[in-house]
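Risk register update: the risk of archive-format incompatibility is retired. Evidence:
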Amino acid sequence: MKITRVRGIALGLAGLAVIGVVAAIAFVTLTDSKELRYPTQSALRDALGTTATAELSSRGIALRKGLTCQDLPGWTKLKLRAGCTGSTADEKPVQVIGTGEDETSEHHYTILVDGRPVVENARCLGADCEKKAG
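Archived output:
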């Protein structure tokens, strides 16, 4: 089989196209842009009170005053842990737990009111859920 210049050029271009597609797939796979919404301990702790308050409000639960948030024991740069406490308008205790895992790039939140879960292992709270959906 005789290969002409036109066939050679066509085969070369096809080969380059295949290499380009493979390189693009590898680039997208290796540079996954999924990141934590709150990438630091202080960012998670600072946002947790606001987002939890919004989540409770959307569920018809009013707070007596703002939540008090702090770092939870055992947090690291790769495993964020924060918690908030407070009480509802009718004096029921509120506990909020927020986590962030660098390895999975996921947050999880739990809210307990009077010891009962209102939110369990949710990936977002309050307005953050709207941002993610939009």
